[in-house]
Amino acid sequence: METVNWGILGAANFAANHMGPAIHAARGAHLAALGTSDPAKAAPFSEFAPGLTVHDSYDAVLADPGIDAVYIPLPNHLHVEWSLRALDAGKHVLCEKPMTLQADQFDELTEARDKSGLLAAEAFMIVHHPQFVRAKELVAEGAIGAVRHVDAVFSYYNADTGNIRNQAAAGGGGLPDIGVYTFGAARFVMGEEPEEVPFAHIDYENGVDTFVQMAARFPSFTYSALVSMRLFNRQEVVFHGDKGVLRVTCPFNAGVFDQAEISVETGGQARRIERFPGVNQYVLQVEAFCRSVQTGAPYACPLEFSKGTQAMMDMTFAAAKAGR
Q1: How far from the centroid of its chain's Cα atoms is residue 110's Cα?
Q2: How far does CA 250 lie from the centroid of its chain?
Q3: Are residues 219 and 152 in the same domain?
Q4: Residue range 70-104, pLDDT digits in tens
Q5: Nearest Cα to Cα of residue 130 among 298, 265, 280, 310
Q6: Structural domain count, the chain
Q7: 293 is a domain residue
Q8: DSSP state of 249
Q9: Same domain, 62 and 210
Q10: Does some domain include residue 86?
Q11: 307 φ, ψ to 5°?
Q12: Residues spanned by the domain of 264
């Protein structure tokens, strides 16, 4: 297969502004179809993808024999259902995060993936960005010594009750939306799983978490995170070693929030900065997905990895509920 033909289930704004253009631009990919019952919502896609086939339903996209893979940007509570339906229809699946709302839901997805022989993955794009690949390399080679603590922050302000991120029935909330990044970033770079979440505080509004402060213990380091949909924009991940500090600036919205950089501080007040300008992590994600489909190459974010992130979120919700 020289080219992977893609369909998108739903004309979400994120798909129109980011992932649709990324699929169109990626090598080895072709954006061939979109499923939406509203022709007006298809217009922005047709502007950058001439010749796009617009189906009036998601099922029609899945029934299209010319589609090899689908991207799913639907509301969170629909991710498992449509991922399973796509796999059953013989399509590879790249689904927006969080792919599930509980860790055990990944078991059904993994079983369907293995049974079909298709690729199914969560759209956790940061593991494809050279910023995080480099951070993982630096930590592994001991650039800051033994890492003893990691802290992560991701916040933005969104109090719009009409937005699905603020709707409990749609699987909204800060942790499902962006906790995936703060938790997954630490797990990816360090290669460890949390042993315990001894502390978690969560503020809720209308049934969704809007502010989360938590702490976790991993086998070789401690971890703390702040995740909020009610604070001014901020994002950073810091790896604190016994011989230095590594800061990943603009770790999640590279090129939008700010320029992606890595700062390494070591003895004698030495400070080195590595910059990664002009990188589109969404394009890299699609290209990596296509390579895996075409060649069977390992994919950087398999379902097993995503299940680990969701398990950590489950632990955080449980700790807060228990009053720890």
Answers
A1: 17
A2: 15
A3: yes
A4: 999 999 999 999 999 999 999 999 999 999 999 99
A5: 280
A6: 2
A7: no
A8: E
A9: no
A10: yes
A11: -60, -40
A12: 126-282+309-321
Listed residue (170, 260, 236) closest to 207, CA to CA = 170
* Tokens of residue 259, six digits: 């320029």
Place of tokens 């230095």: 244
DSSP 8-class letter at 263: E
Please report where in the chains the tokens 């990664």 appear, as a residue. Answer: 276
Report the C-alpha dihedral over residues 184, 190, 194, 200, rounded to 10 degrees. -60
CA distances from 121 to 22, 166, 186 (A): 17, 25, 19
Residues 6 or more apart in contact with residue 286 via CB below 8 angstroms: 6, 19, 22, 23, 26, 29, 94
Do residues 223 and 136 lie in contact, with contact meaning Cβ atoms separated by under 8 Å?
Answer: no
d(CA 243, CA 88): 51
Per the rule left: phi > 0, alpha: psi between -120 and 50, beta: everything else, 109 is alpha
pTM above 0.90, yes or no: yes
Pair 23, 90 in one domain = yes
Backbone angles phi, psi at 122, to 5 degrees: -85, 145
Q: Are residues 117 and 137 in the same domain?
A: no
* The token pair that represents 220 in the structure block: 């070789």
Residues 161 and 229 in one domain: yes
Based on the fold, state whether residues 93 and 208 are members of the same structural domain: no
Domain contains 65: yes
Same domain, 55 and 161: no
**Residues annotated catalytic, as ranges:** 97
Concatenated DSSP letters of 21-76: HHHHHSTTEEEEEEE-S-HHHHHHHHHHSTT-EEESSHHHHHH-TT--EEEE---G
Structure-token pair, residue 280:
């589109």
State the CATH number of the domain containing residue 137. Answer: 3.30.360.10
Assess whether 269 and 144 both reside in one domain.
yes
* Length of the chain, in residues: 324
What would the two tokens of residue 218 be?
Answer: 């991993």
pLDDT digits (tens, 9 = 90+) for 243-271: 999 999 999 987 777 789 999 999 877 89
Please indicate, yes or no, if residue 291 is contained in any of the structural domains.
Answer: no
